[in-house]
Design goal:
Helix content of chain B: 40-55%
Shape of chain B: globular
Distance between the termini of chain B: 22 Å
Shape of chain A: elongated
Order of helices and strands of chain B: HHHEHEHEHEEEHHEHEHHHHEHHEEH
Strand order of the largest sheet of chain B: 1-3-2-4-6-5-10-11-9-7-8
Radius of gyration of chain B: 22 Å
Number of domains of chain A: 3
Oligomer: heterodimer
CATH superfamily of the largest domain in chain B: Amidase signature (AS) domain
Distance between the termini of chain A: 57 Å
Helix content of chain A: 25-40%
Strand order of the largest sheet of chain A: 2-6-7-10-1-11-12-13-14
Largest sheet of chain A: 9 strands, mixed
Structural class of chain A: alpha+beta
Number of helices of chain B: 16
Largest sheet of chain B: 11 strands, mixed
CATH class of the largest domain in chain B: Alpha Beta
Structural class of chain B: alpha/beta
């Protein structure tokens, strides 16, 4: 990255809402299904049909706005955005132009220990389009199952300055949407889609450079790679004396490059028109207050709590709040065990290894995990057997105490039991003993390894080391 | 006994007395349609088999002692842009060639629920962009008792453009979003009122339809079941405190005639009148362009055979599918909403529309109704302007035919505040009879 230049980034995020029915008709929003089985004359744009707004969509948008510190518009309206494409049955998308439901919000992010506030310009509601399917021999087919699935579009201010900040913002935004339960936010199914607007300028300049918009960013990884590539491309272009063209660019995952899709000259005039088939959206204070009460504690509130009450560090706390399911699981377990830090450690290092953190499903009961933490804490087991127990718990969700008994995994703390094993190990490790006595501290590991092998990993590591050292004097 | 001369309540009486069956009525109408060639001149398509089948069902219902619906056995036609499940609905346009809707418009559901017989679908010019007389002809030549649809031209019939929001727009293809989509055409006011009673009301499929049970429980139309009114007196027309007549349309004889009824009249000027037509054209064209954007040849209707790629498919389908007037309207409509022109044309027209509505509200505030005498001799543009006043305000307009002593044809259009159809219907019913007895009329 050229030190003379600064990157300026704003994002537009489309979040598919998980209402039961579509935005303007009673069809299901369920993902997938046989093509054209989740649709009706309304969402297929038949002549004479009319849209009727699903009020739940407005509620979800208000909740999203409240969770991102937005102001909620008392009066807003819906507009038609016209363009021709076969997946758009009416040839206009019902969206919001001048008066979005939410505006003027903000989110705090933290990157490398630095806190920063990112402005949110607006959040508006709109309908999704269908999908084109290309089939050899059959040509292009259209599936309207997704047509009319409700979306919110969240637009940020151009406040982001790096790929890392952008990722932090998107992750925070995604976590919040998951917390308030308005969306599944599955990037691979397209229920959380990001477009990135990026420009560069010489540091200290006040004017923004010409921006490009990048699409087809299907993962946070793609977002980061696209930003890095595009920023370099723009800086090089400017340094070589060229100019940046305002255009839409597609990110290609294989090459890691961005390619021009269409320039501003080809840009369509969407001919926005207020949709008079729909009534204005009027939101009163009581409705906003009512929805406020339904919001759960948001990620930042929980992070603060985890750090203050449970003594976790910022990084660990951040990991645990990344999804509400993980945070809820942690909170239930932490109330039943003695050491929150040990719990956090096991969750981050062991549990996250085996579960999908984007779609968290508890591999075993939080009660059993809490019990395991306490077994570790009171010395009943050691950390190496705890891993064995976790493996057993994944196979069958049983109490770790029971597993300890059944598999005879209890830690050996008893000196009288350990001593003969240690002495035998010393006798059979002449080389290591010699090295240790010669000042090579590391040689001790070989002897410990033998002891652990003999005890099936159950020997209390601290007691073992203490006894070993005493016997080697 | 000429069945074709009977109105709805008379036919209902005859059926109640078992002097005639629904099947017989329907067959008489169908025979008349074919004898007069209405199947070619007025109807786009006929549903003879379905109509007779339905009539037989109603007769059986009656025979079994069940109470048939309010329009049992009565032939009510609709224009060809009203969606009818399983029946060709091309809205007068090649772009909807062979289109058969998979659902019924709400008004069709309501008519069928009251056992009306739909003998067929009446022609319209492409998307009813121009005035047409098909509905009027249908009623006058006895092709049906009432026609519900988008065709509102023609003489010597009674027409009602209901308040915006009173009748569901769901399934009406020519409807644009914010302008009145429907005209009911009939020979008799009571027939028209009875059909209006059936098709009006809140529809959850149309957000702009109004729930009148919440708005005003007293809203109810003349059911037509009442005995024919005896010669009216001034006190009978009491609900209307004053009739305001637009000066530039006024006619001295007419004012005198109305004064004789003991009704206060006042000549007024509508300051915003000259803006009605331009604003209407801009708004209706913009809404038309938007509403017809969906006709792209992808899902239904006409598709050109002549295309290599998507762009061509759109261009050729729409170029070949839309007629001249539609294309003109689409081009003009898109022009007034493009990013550079929106404020100057569309937005300005919306503002103008508010001003017009405000002025009309002021005029009607004292409980009066507005009379727009639209004479054949008036300047065409002037007439057109006032014809769109109902659509621009969303208020109901009831028009009754009148010929003065000089045999000059005047369409007497009465406009009231929104959802005040009851007043209009009662007033028109009485004024019509007096004007008839006065020596005008047919």
């Amino acid at each position: 990255m050229d030190k003379d230049y600064e990157i300026v980034i704003g994002v537009e995020v489309h979040v598919e809402l998980k209402t039961k029915t579509k935005i303007f008709c009673a069809c299901t929003t369920e993902f997938g299904g046989e093509p054209n089985t989740h649709c009706c004359p309304v969402c297929m744009g038949f002549p004479g049909t009319l849209p009727v707004l699903n009020e739940e969509v407005v509620n979800y948008a208000i909740q999203a706005g409240l969770a991102t510190n937005c102001e909620i518009a008392e009066n807003s309206k819906q507009d038609r955005k016209h363009y021709f494409y076969p997946d758009l049955p009416t040839s206009y998308q019902i969206s919001q132009d001048e008066l979005p439901i939410c505006y003027n919000g903000r989110l705090d992010i933290e990157v490398g220990g630095n806190k920063k506030t990112i402005g949110i310009t607006r959040i508006h509601i709109e309908e999704d389009a269908g999908k084109l399917i290309h089939r050899d021999g059959l040509g292009t087919l259209v599936d309207y199952n997704r047509s009319g699935v409700p979306l919110i579009e969240i637009v940020s201010e151009p406040d982001l300055r790096s790929a890392e900040e952008t990722r932090a913002f998107l992750q925070k935004l995604r976590a919040i949407m998951l917390y308030i339960g308005v969306s599944d936010c599955k990037m691979n199914e397209g229920s959380f889609r990001c477009d990135v607007n990026l420009s560069v300028r010489k540091k200290g300049e006040k004017e923004y450079g010409t921006r490009t918009e990048m699409k087809n960013l299907n993962s946070f990884q793609s977002v980061m790679r696209a930003i890095e590539y595009e920023a370099q491309r723009q800086i090089k272009e400017i340094k070589d004396g060229g100019t940046i063209i305002q255009e839409t660019r597609r990110f290609d995952q294989d090459s890691g490059k961005t390619f021009s899709m269409r320039s501003k000259e080809d840009a369509q005039d969407y001919r926005y028109l207020p949709d008079a088939d729909l009534m204005p959206i009027v939101i009163d204070k009581a409705r906003i207050e009512g929805l406020k009460k339904t919001l759960p504690d948001l990620p930042d509130v929980r992070k603060k709590l985890y750090m203050e009450r449970y003594g976790l560090n910022s990084y660990d706390a951040e990991q645990l709040i990344s999804s509400i399911d993980i945070a809820d699981y942690f909170e239930k377990a932490v109330k039943l065990c003695k050491n929150p830090k040990t719990l956090a450690n096991i969750m981050i290092t062991e549990v996250f290894r085996i579960v999908d953190t984007d779609d968290f499903a508890a591999p075993f009961s939080y009660k059993h995990l809490a019990e395991l933490v306490d077994l570790l804490e009171d010395g009943t087991i050691n950390s190496s057997t705890s891993k064995k127990i976790l493996e057993e718990m994944i196979k069958e969700d049983k109490s770790p105490s029971v597993i300890v008994k059944e598999k005879d995994l209890e830690q050996i703390n008893d000196v009288d039991t350990l001593l003969p094993i240690i002495q035998e190990a010393i006798t059979s490790s002449k080389k290591a003993v010699k090295e240790y006595k010669g000042g090579k501290e590391k040689a001790l590991q070989a002897i410990i390894g033998k002891i652990m092998g003999k005890t099936g990993g159950k020997a209390n590591p601290e007691t073992t080391i203490k006894l070993l050292k005493e016997n080697l004097k | 006994m000429n069945i074709l001369d009977k109105n709805i309540s008379e036919l209902a009486d005859l059926m109640d007395k078992k002097e005639i069956t629904s099947e017989e009525i329907v067959k008489i109408y169908i025979q008349n349609i074919s004898e007069k060639g209405l199947d070619k001149t007025v109807y786009k398509s006929l549903c003879v088999e379905e109509a007779i089948k339905k009539a037989k069902k109603i007769d059986k219902k009656r025979k079994d002692g069940a109470q048939p619906g309010a329009l049992a056995g009565i032939p009510i036609a609709v224009t060809e842009d009203i969606s009818t499940k399983g029946i060709l609905t091309e809205a007068g346009s090649k772009i909807l060639k062979d289109y058969i809707p998979p659902f019924n418009a709400t008004i069709i559901e309501k008519l069928l629920a009251e056992d009306a017989i739909i003998p067929g679908k009446v022609k319209i010019p492409e998307f009813s962009l121009e005035d047409s007389e098909y509905s009027a002809r249908c009623v006058l030549d006895k092709g049906a008792l009432v026609v519900v649809g988008s065709s509102g031209g023609g003489k010597d019939v009674i027409k009602l453009e209901p308040s915006y929001g009173l009748v569901s727009r769901y399934g009406i293809i020519s409807a644009t979003s914010s302008l009145s989509p429907l005209t009911l055409v009939a020979k008799e006011i009571n027939d028209l009122a009875l059909v209006l009673d059936i098709i009006s009301g809140y529809d959850r499929k149309d957000s702009t339809s109004v729930d009148l049970t919440q708005r005003d429980g007293s809203f109810k139309h003349n059911t037509g079941k009442a005995a024919p009114p005896v010669s009216p007196t001034a006190s009978d027309v009491a609900p209307v405190s004053k009739v305001k007549i637009v000066r530039e349309l006024s006619n001295n004889n007419l004012v005198e005639d109305i004064k004789k009824l003991g009704i206060n009249t006042e000549e007024i000027i509508i300051e915003t009148a000259k803006y009605i037509l331009p604003a209407f054209r801009i708004l209706s064209s913009a809404e038309f362009a938007s509403a017809t954007a969906r006709y792209d040849g992808i899902r239904y209707g006409y598709r050109s055979d002549n295309y290599e790629d998507r762009e061509e498919l759109y261009k050729n389908t729409r170029s070949e599918g839309f007629g001249k007037e539609a294309k003109k309207t689409i081009i003009f409509g898109n022009h007034v909403i493009n990013a550079g022109q929106y404020d100057r044309y569309y937005k300005k027209s919306q503002q103008v529309r508010s001003l017009i509505k405000d002025e009309i509200d002021k005029i009607l505030k004292d409980g009066s109704i507005l009379l727009l005498p639209l004479s054949d001799n008036l300047d065409e543009n002037l007439k057109k302007s006032y014809k769109e006043l109902g659509s621009m305000t969303g208020y109901p307009v009831l028009s009754i035919p009148y010929r003065n002593a000089k045999d000059e044809y005047i369409e007497l259009s009465l406009l009231s505040s929104g959802f005040d159809e009851k007043t209009l219907i009662q007033f028109a019913d009485k004024i019509e009879k007096i004007l008839d007895s006065h020596g005008g009329g047919e």
